[in-house]
Amino acid sequence: NKHWDIRIDSKMWYETLTLQSQLKHRFPELADPDTYYGFRFCHQLDFSTSGALGGSAYKCFKDRLVTKAYLALVRGHVSQSRMTIRYAIGKNTTEGMTPMMCIGCENPKPCQSELIVLEHGSYSGDPVTKVLLQQLTGRRTHQLRVHCSAIGHPVVGDFTYSHKKDSSPYRMMLHAYYLRIPTGKELIEVCAPDPFVTTMDSNWVPHHVVQRLDETIRELK
Questions:
Q1: Which residue has the higher pLDDT, 156 or 9?
Q2: Domains and CATH numbers, the chain
Q3: Average pLDDT for residues 83-94, to the nearest whole number?
Q4: CA-CA-CA-CA torsion sign (19, 20, 25, 29)
Q5: Residues 5, 46, 166, 194: which is the catalytic one?
Q6: Could you tell me which of 134, 177, 201, 220 has the fewest CB atoms within 10 Å of its CB?
Q7: Known active-site residue 46
């Protein structure tokens, strides 16, 4: 269950707190001495994203057999209860190679993401929507963040894809909630605790339930 605002790994001498260093401290017997980091990561989460992280079963990730679902709080009230977002994503050289939806991008690839509305509410008094997100095709860097921004509902606290305006929340509200890895020997299925509940963050106030999270995950399974 990765914390927000922490890197998977880093070669910078001043960045001593990484997921790799945490794993090495907690499970020294599992560290691989033949690697620089001690661990081989086959699943990545952004620096600002929290949640369930898989560290095994490389072939399942490579063959797209893994199911991943993310929770997010996004700006505004999303009117459609369910939608498929289809935009090609590439890298814009004029923006420092930041992944984004754009015309004339370098190496654009078609991508599809699914958005399911769970709750409408407010965050620090502003209208927001709690959603479940899935990458259906593409799986480009920052894909879910780019797609949410493209439909006019950027992730709360996402400074990069809010035209560098949304900097007030203490974290970016994107969380890897559910991970299913069907390895040949066993089915690995994990849920990281939902951080977007009022008991964890009193700034988030739900007003109306559209779809229950447990029912949505059951349908996903």
A1: 156
A2: 43-220 (3.30.2350.10)
A3: 77
A4: positive
A5: 46
A6: 220
A7: yes
